[in-house]
Amino acid sequence: MPHTSLDVKTRLFKLKQFVTERWSAPASPVPCILVAQVDPDAVGSAAGLRYLFKQAFDCAANICYFGSISHPQNRAIFNKLDLYRTMRAVSMPEVGSLPLMLVDSSSLDDARIGRSDQKTDPVVVIDHHRGATLKDDEKHFIWIDDVGAASTLVTELIQGADLAFNEEDSDVALLLALGIYTDTYRLTTATERDFKAFEWLRCFFKRDDFNELLNYPLSPAYFRNVQTALNRQVLSGSRLVATVGRIDPDEGDDLAIIADELIRRTGISLVVVWGLIDGNKVRFSARNMDISMSLVGFLHERFGSGSSGAKLLEGGRGVGGGLITVDLGPLQELPLERRLNIMGELMQDKVFRE
Question: Boundaries of each DDH domain copy (predicted)?
């Protein structure tokens, strides 16, 4: 049975009232659903929210995202479902004056979004990451709940509106299911609500399409990065730091895939995999299995709250990462290998020191 509790029905009523009062008139601005980090859960929840707006509220919404489509699974999803046509890459100044909605995130103070003089608070937030302090009020619709995926929350709203996907909209159901499946690590960290939402969605898309987007191809560059990380890893106790050296920005999501594999190594509780991008910018992915340590607190302390972030999965597992700028001063003129060694020592100090 769909999860359509009074709580969801109440939230749906408030969201409909919130939306129709602000954006249903012909001259009203079209709200923008923002994806801070492109991944299946963010894309799925954005697509689902736009579907809900259209079908239940008779209101249009645009979907915009920051950054590039670099992860191989994201590229497969965008290509197969032609999402480049329906979702637009933007910078913050382009959308800062619009009514903004955030899914799978709760803050615009994010290194992935970039800096802007326009300080616009999102008026709608649907997220599942712990630690957010936003509160629901008359001027905002805020729903942050402890489930495995933001796509689960959007699916519950769709169920609460008594909607069902037809063949024309099956891609939306597919995206929501992918969001739940991937953000819960193939349902291994899923809550009961995630399971129920995923099972309901399965009726509306072809299993072959779902499997194709899970078994996405990996580029030769990915395997080169894996080899470099294995050759350039340093271990201190149960903590491991590895680098892929200098990488193209389009390969940045390889760091997350590699970190997911390295954290499975016996005896390892914390993994940080990093790469040098654009001269002095270091991108990194972190994974944590130590339930006694908050990964988000650790990353904020070592790398800054505006440059890093993390979420806690079921069972205490932490998943995070960030982007920092390393100012080497005159050492920036050193050969690449020397700079990589200096940055490696810096990253090891940040991760290994107690």
Answer: 38-180
